[in-house]
Design a protein that fits this description.
The complex is a heterodimer of chains A (242) and B (218). By secondary structure, chain A is an alpha/beta fold. Chain A contains nine helices and ten strands. Chain B has helices at 8-46, 49-63, 67-82, 88-114, 117-125, 130-160, 172-183, 186-214. Classes of the chains: A alpha/beta (242), B mainly alpha (218).
């Protein structure tokens, strides 16, 4: 299958700190890539470079045939193809669950009000929250908010979904409802890049696991294989702690 | 000491005229001040080095000098410097605009920056251009947060109009002064003037409370 995300020798500095160090990586359509690694290893930054929330300092990064260096207009196109889900949900607090989902379609895809609402209801139903459409974010649990956030991203009809530690802010029992939604997406062959510490999710749903260290890809392999028999000490050590 | 409250009724129409001028300066000045404040505040929050720097200099100059000096400068120094003559009333409105604008800019900047960066990122990540993120997401949230300090600034500016006595604008304080000069009824006149100010600021407070009640702070 063809690559939808291509990192060519990508570097990212914050001042003198090198967070991403000459990374080459291709993500093919339909892959579920799980990014793991110790904090500060650059996994979140790598993810955020894909939709241009962080600008790369060197190399090139192509998303759906568009370079993230192509300027604001191209960046907006990339962002419409690469939805992102955040650790802190970041739902728009002044909008109901339904409005959160319908908003992007109306503003970005220029869908009509009724059509946007209809599609938003479909998505709410898909994430199991059909009865919560009139609720404001603060009236929802963390797990529910994160599912609305996933629906909000899906509403733009992206080709890739980026997840930045989507369950790290959730209680254990709420994590599952979010992971289940992500599992459904994977079953539908959505291309996904997921930064997470959920190793069982990585094993069951991931098609590929990447272990990052010091801004480099240290391990890249089949999740079950590399988790059960880590190819290096550093990763073995890391796995013992998650 | 003989205090005769009944004399106030005789001066009421005169004081009303003064209050009307005070209100006029306040409303016009604040309208301009809010416009300036919004623009400069956004320049401070979103501008690059140059734009941010320019806005910063404006805010610092205004915040760092007394409003009386600003008024004097506008009224007496500007004609010399640039041969621009402006009448007292225009000077008064301009002074409130420029002065309130600087403070409101800081209020706007604070409110905008208090909105979580994550919300901006969420907006950008669904493909919105930055101006839409500001107009539809950050703006409405920041607006709720700037109402309390903005109300405070409105009250401050309303009271600041009293110093236009120095350039001879017949606002409320000056009116009180004129009446006083004619009859020396200090207690009655200054009490009445104070009550007039209280009625105006009190009304402002009530309006603000109504707005705040209608809008949940998110």
């Amino acid at each position: 299958m063809s690559a939808i995300i291509k990192f060519h020798n990508v570097s990212k500095h914050f001042g003198s700190l090198k967070v991403i160090d000459e990374v080459d990586l291709e993500v093919r359509r339909g892959e579920v890539v799980v990014l793991v690694g110790p904090s500060g290893s650059g996994k979140s930054t790598l993810l955020r470079c894909i939709n241009g929330l962080e600008m790369i300092s060197g190399g090139d990064l192509i998303v759906d045939q568009l370079s993230v260096k192509g300027g604001n207009k191209v960046l907006r196109e990339i962002r419409q193809e690469a939805g992102m889900v955040f650790q802190q949900f970041n739902l728009f607090p002044q909008m109901t669950a339904l409005e959160n989902i319908a908003f992007g379609q109306r503003q970005v895809r220029h869908v009509g009000r009724q059509e946007a609402k209809r599609h938003a209801r479909e998505l709410l139903d898909k994430v199991g929250l059909a009865d919560k459409e009139a609720h404001y974010p603060h009236e929802l649990s963390g797990g529910q908010q994160q599912r609305v956030a996933i629906a909000r991203s899906l509403a733009i009809k992206p080709k890739v979904m980026l997840f930045d530690e989507p369950t790290s802010a959730l209680d254990p029992e709420l994590k599952q409802e979010v992971l289940n939604v992500m599992r459904t997406l994977a079953d539908e062959h959505m291309t996904m890049v997921v930064v997470t510490h959920e190793m069982s999710f990585a094993k069951q749903v991931g098609t590929r696991l990447i272990f990052m260290e010091h801004g480099k890809i240290a391990v890249d392999g089949k999740p079950a294989e590399v988790i059960d028999s880590p190819p290096n000490d550093r990763m073995r050590d890391f796995l013992r702690h998650v | 000491m003989n205090v005769d409250w009944s004399i106030i009724s005789g001066f009421l129409p005169h004081l009303m005229d003064g209050a009307r001028v005070t209100l006029y300066i306040t409303v016009m000045g604040l309208a301009g001040g809010m416009l300036i404040g919004a623009i400069v505040g956004l320049m401070r929050a979103y501008g690059g080095h140059v734009i941010n720097g320019l806005a910063f200099v404006y805010v610092e100059v205004i915040r760092g000098t007394p409003i009386v000096v600003q008024v004097m400068f506008l009224y007496f120094a500007l004609p010399v410097l640039a041969s621009i003559r402006i009448d007292p009333m225009t000077t008064a409105i301009l002074a409130i605009m420029i002065n309130a604008g600087a403070y409101i800019a800081e209020i706007v900047r604070g409110a905008v920056l208090s909105i979580s960066k994550g919300l901006t990122e969420a907006g950008l990540s669904i493909g919105l251009p930055r101006w839409k993120v500001i107009v539809y997401i950050v703006g409405p949230l920041a607006f709720r947060r700037l109402i309390p300090p903005l109300g405070n600034q409105c009250i401050v500016s309303l009271k600041d109009t009293s110093l236009f006595i120095v350039i001879g604008v017949s606002e409320l304080t000056r009116t009180g002064q004129e009446i006083m000069a004619a009859n020396f009824r200090a207690v009655e006149i200054w009490t009445a003037v104070a009550v007039f100010y209280l009625i105006m600021t009190g009304t402002l407070t009530m309006i603000l409370r109504m707005i705040e009640k209608r809008m949940r702070i998110l």
